[in-house]
Structures are given as structure tokens and as C-alpha cells.
Amino acid sequence: MFYDEQGKHVRTKKEILDENGNVRKGCNIVKKGEIYERNLYSAKNKLFKQDEFVDEVKHFYTDLINTMIKDDKEKLHVFDENGLYLATKKIGKNNPKAEQIQMDNEYRMRWNREVDRAIVSGVPETEIQQIKKEYISDRIKESIDLFGSQPERFGTILMSAVAVLAMLISKVLQKARELSAKFFEKEVVQTISEPSGGRTTPIIPQTDSVLQQEHKFKVPTVDLSVQQRELQPKTQTTEQKIPRIPPKPVMSAEAAAYPKLSKIYKELNRQNGIIFDAEKERNALELERDSLKGLARLTKKGEIQSKIDRKNEEIDLLKVGLSGIAKRYGFHTVHDFYKVYATAKIAYAEYRDKADRWEELYGENAPRQTKESVHRRLQDYQRANADRQAEQTSKNKDRGAR
């Protein structure tokens, strides 16, 4: 086997000889019987063939890239295959299956928009995950086992899952509106039944916590001179800590973001209510179409069907707008927004609880008795410490004179 200066295999020996018939420098000849192929690398590590390794590398490099991106809206995300959503496929250049992939992506986006709406409507994530498993994952496996690989059946399976999820959303919203209406009627009945002239302001007794707090910091009435005489002359008296008003609670970053997130939350619910009303109108038109009989079925069916089609287009646009609200404010999905919103809501509630408690005890609107008790305790402790220091100073002077 003959190899030239670049290590490339050549057919004859003449190709590596110079003008004098000698082998050129850098060329190589492998004689018969010698090994001319070597395995320079060991067997591949099985770890690199596992999905866990690929997933770890995806997250690592995604986080690394995001450190260089300043705008949160442009940051990358790793898709969670075990989540509620379905991933769309990328269509390459000159792909012969581009039309089929585009159609599948539209079905996937329909499911994703319905998931966004289910989250806004208050459907539990476990139920959405259960519908995804039963009506999508399991049915796709059954279809492959029975009929083999038939991509055209994917759209039918996915649309049935979307219909099931839409029915669940409608039931949840209808139940929520009924409960809201009952609660409103109950409040109105109570307001009418209670006479306005006979109302009396209840007297709220003083809580035990304030009394216990005053009792805890109350200075004993024993004479200080008697206590100091009982102490040994060589022991040093430890200064008692002066009670101080605790600092006002500080709002965390999560709590500070809650008012803005609350506005987004209200906007999502408002958009969801508009979609629900549009669906009710569409359902009423479908009932009217199905109830037509005789001549009216021939004359009015086409007109009503066109109204239904326009209403369906309107509903699709409204659903696209619902998913776009979260993206407009920098969230990748509605699910990501709701996770951040839940954390901020808890942090804000904890902050308000602490702040209200602080205002109740130490704020400007605190009861006068509480303010006076705190001020009196501070003055008593300061006076007691001053007397103790003066007595200690006089004792030190007497010892020095002796």
C-alpha cells in the first residue's frame, strides 16, 4: 500500500517516487503482511447514545446561550416532551412531505391553543394530562399496532382529543358561572333582608396577644437599689436588651411583580369569557340548524351554516389571541405564565399579611394604647439602665478611694 505526503492512498509506487527514483520525503510504503489500518479510537461510550445525555446537553447549551441574550422574549426554551403541549415539526428545504407536516403542525397548534384555554379556565393539569394520554398517546399506539404507519390518521385522532378537552372546558366554565350567579343572588338577598337602621357596630374586645406582649415587657416594680445590693460586688451586671420596633417588612421581587401579573391574569380571563360567549352563540346556531324541518331546511340551512362557519373562524382567531397575550408579555406559554403568577401571588399574600400586622402594631393608625405601651417600655428600660450604670460608677469610685 502506497501513501503520499498527505497520507492519501495511491495506486502505484511511481506516484510517490522523485526524479531519481527514490521515495519522496513524507511518503510511506506498507509492505505485504503488515497492518495498514489501525483503530485509533476505543468503543463508543453507551452514555452518549442515551436520551438522558442528549436532554442534559440541550439544557446546558440552552442556558449557556441564554446568558448572552438580554431580551427575555428572545431567550430559547427546551421543549418538555412530558408536558401538556405538543411539539411542532420543522419543515426542511425541498422536503417532499412538507404539505403533510404543515397539516400536522396545524392540528398540533389547535391542541396547544386548547390547552392554553383550559389552563385559563381552571381545568386541573392532571385532567389535561390524562386526556392527552388517553386520546392522543394511547390511540396513536393502537393505530400503529392495527393499521401500521398512516400519518393521515393523526389529524382525526388529534381533533377528537381537542373536542373532548373543549367539552371539559365548557363544563368547567358553565359550572363557574352558575356558582358565581348563586353567590351574587345570595349576597343580594342578605343585603335586602338586613334592615339598615338596626345595624350596630360590634365591639371588638382587645386580643390576648397584645395583653401578653405588654405583660412580657412589663418592668417589675421591685426597687432597683435592693436588687443591686443583693448582687455580688465582683460580678458584672449584664445589660438588658432594649426592645426595639421591628423594621417594616420589605416586598420581595416576586411580590413586587404581582400587580403587573394580575393585570395579565385579568386580561386572559376577559379574553376567555369572550371565547365562551362566542361558542355559546355558535352552539345556538347549530341547534337552530339541526331543528329545521320541511321547506325551511332547504331554504335556511345554507344561511345558518355560513353563520356557523364565520363564527368558527372568529373563535379560532380569539383562541390565537388568547395564546398571544402571554407571548406578548414575554412568556413562552400560558402555562409558564401561570406558574410565575402562582409564585408571585403567594409571595404578595405573605407580604401583605406581614405588612398589615406591622401597621396594626406599630404603624400610624395603630391603637394609641399600643403606641403608648411601647413608648413607655422603652423609657422605663432606658431609665433603669441609666440608674444601673450610675450605681456601678459610684461603686467603682468607692473601691478606688479605698
Secondary structure layout plus pairing:
Elements: E1 2-3, E2 9-10, E3 28-29, H1 51-66, H2 98-121, H3 125-147, H4 153-193, H5 208-216, H6 224-230, H7 253-256, H8 258-290, H9 295-299, H10 301-328, H11 334-362, H12 368-401
Antiparallel strand pairs: 1-2, 1-3
Please provide a written account of the structure:
With 402 residues, the protein is mainly α. It is 63% helix and 1% strand. It is built from twelve helices and three strands. The chain has helices spanning 51-66, 98-121, 125-147, 153-193, 208-216, 224-230, 253-256, 258-290, 295-299, 301-328, 334-362, 368-401; strands spanning 2-3, 9-10, 28-29. It has a three-stranded antiparallel β-sheet, with no helix packed on it. A hairpin with a 5-residue loop joins strand 1 and strand 2. Helix 2 (98-121) packs across helix 10 (301-328) and helix 8 (258-290) runs antiparallel to helix 10. It starts with a strand and ends with a helix. Residues 195-240 have low confidence and may be disordered.
